Give the backbone structure.
Amino acid sequence: MKVAVLFGGTSAERDVSIASGAQVIKALRSAGHETIAIDTVGGVLSSQEERRLLEWNVAEVPPDINLAKAESVSALLFAQLAEIRAADVAFLALHGGTGEDGTLQAVLDLCGIAYTGSGHAASAIAMDKDVSKRLFRTAGIPTADWLMAPAQAATVTEIFGFPLVVKPNKQGSTVGLSVVKDPQHLDAAIRLASRFDDEVMLERFIPGREFTVGVLDGEALAVGEIIPKMGEVFDYASKYQQGGATEIFPAQLSADQTQRAQELACHAHRALKLEGHSRIDFRMDDDGEFWCLEANTSPGMTATSLLPQSGQAVGISFPELCERICRLAIERHRRSLTT
């Protein structure tokens, strides 16, 4: 295959996307596929720029997204690049922003270009945590109670109390997320989250263990447990700094618990009409009940990211996973041309 790998972007997850893009390129080339590296801020990379890319490390804090936005060009321009049109498929290694919220997917659909992951509507729905949780509730998938800001501390206390999680509604990698234990810190947490999105969610904190399940072509992969070492939640630093968390694949659960998590993951994937691949995140409370946190339509794609680990635990190597994701996208695109 000839694959155009799109990464970078202008969201707060730009650094994470660059790391994903570097590893996807390396994996696909190791499997014998031709790849083109395209940063959606700067365009097609030269050989020298690619070498620097492969050495990329994610910083402890998200990048200054205003700098990237100032240099960006429209998604439509990139969709018209000859390099993308000449490829069999575009691998979207973009996280957050217009690369994950359905905007770029809609442009690629209009241009008739095959791309990995979910379509534009499903991508937009999954990116919006408020809408996703409403669909989870409708589908009978347990998810924690929530409110949307603005909300007074007295209202929060009356509905579900403290501690609670405050986070941007349309953002990934736990960027701008806070666990608020005291009502007097609520306003500051809302202001922090507001730096990354125009909508802020307040969600009941579920004490317990954190799990994730990869989904590939509608089938659940291995369940993994994440044990943060830097705090109570799997935050940005815990995710991307060495030693920030212990990740166990497969998770140490009973057979019934594993089956329950996998069933809920597939159910969530279907409820949001996702396609190709996704990663579904959960908390499990002290009673053993799983609570769905969110669905990730463009999860991290380094060899040690959670989705690749979920695949590795069931015998799918990272290069094979990348290849299968591409082939699923090509098959979906072919079906769309006949309907």
